[in-house]
Specification:
about 250 residues; alpha/beta; Rossmann fold; seven-stranded parallel sheet; about 45% helix; globular; binds NADP nicotinamide-adenine-dinucleotide phosphate
């Protein structure tokens, strides 16, 4: 086992692209050893891990579908082996599915979004709590779930199922925070608004970011790094008395 880093080891699900990649980069800068999870896009995840290592940090990329219990367990075991005990989990992996009304949505797509956005978060948090909780002999830790402003806006006509999945993430954040607060673990969520990543084009509406970005009170879409910074703050000791919160980071939406 390699020596531990100053701030510990963080697992960032969906860490190869978008908000996850910005969070991985910033976590490495702040001294975390970083496990960058991805589902399909090995290129960006491996490149980011190499970039972090070249800059003197510690990182490796690991493929796992967060909705698969067996793959999640293998990933956590790999992290245990590479970096020692996990100290932070960022549950960032997520997808919207194709934009449509609910009555036009494919049932298989609905199932997949709930599976990744809800079951994936539960599965990774479960594996983290088993390792972090003082009840299980762990030394504590922090979990940050990436929710969405959709959980309070509802996303009518776009993806109400995605909004519902993020509502579940918010409820889970509140409940798990209370469940493990006495075991050295803080659990919070960040709910981003309109952030410039590939998720909007992947939803089938390439112009969405530019169109809706203009309507944001602050006057523009956010950058991935503007989510990574509050995530790292919630992970830090500066937020040591904060747990069970959902922090909206939306430019005023
Ligand atoms: P993105 O650029 O589309 O990236 C999504 C990431 O999730 C990718 O790294 C992808 O892996 C990963 N992923 C998807 N399914 C997965 C699975 N089953 N297992 C493991 N990883 C999986 O999206 P983003 O905008 O950065 O979104 C990140 C998070 O922020 C999501 O939870 C999203 O709901 C939330 N969010 C985003 C916005 C926004 O405006 N961008 C707003 C609110 C909330 P691959 O690279 O392998 O495909």
């Amino acid at each position: 086992m390699s020596a531990r880093s100053a701030t510990g080891a963080v697992l960032i699900t969906g860490g190869g692209r978008g908000i996850g990649a910005a969070t991985a980069r910033l976590a490495a800068k702040r001294g975390y050893a970083v496990c960058i999870n991805y589902a399909n896009a090995s290129g960006p995840a491996e490149a980011l891990a190499a970039e972090i290592r070249q800059a003197g940090g510690r990182a490796f990329a690991h493929r796992a579908d967060v909705a698969r219990q067996d793959e999640v367990e293998t990933m956590f075991t790999a992290l245990d082996r590479e970096f020692g005990p996990i100290t932070a989990l960022v549950n960032n992996a997520g997808l919207t599915g194709q934009i449509s009304r609910l009555d036009a949505a494919e049932p298989e797509m609905l199932r997949r979004v709930i599976e990744v956005n809800v079951l994936g978060v539960l599965t990774c948090a479960r594996a983290a709590v088993k390792r972090m909780s003082t009840r299980h002999g762990g030394a504590g830790g922090v979990i940050v779930n990436i929710s969405s402003a959709a959980s309070t806006l509802g996303s009518p006509g776009e993806y109400v199922w995605y909004a519902a999945s993020k509502g579940a993430v918010d409820s889970f954040t509140i409940g798990l925070a209370k469940e493990v607060a006495g075991e050295g673990i803080r659990v919070n969520a960040v709910a981003p608004g309109m952030i410039a990543t590939e998720i909007h084009a992947s939803s089938g509406d390439a112009g969405r970011l530019e169109r809706i970005g203009k309507t944001v009170p602050i006057g523009r879409p956010g950058e991935a790094n503007e989510i990574a910074e509050p995530v790292l703050w919630l992970m830090s000791d500066e937020a040591r008395y904060i747990t069970g919160e959902v922090l909206r980071v939306t430019g005023g939406r």
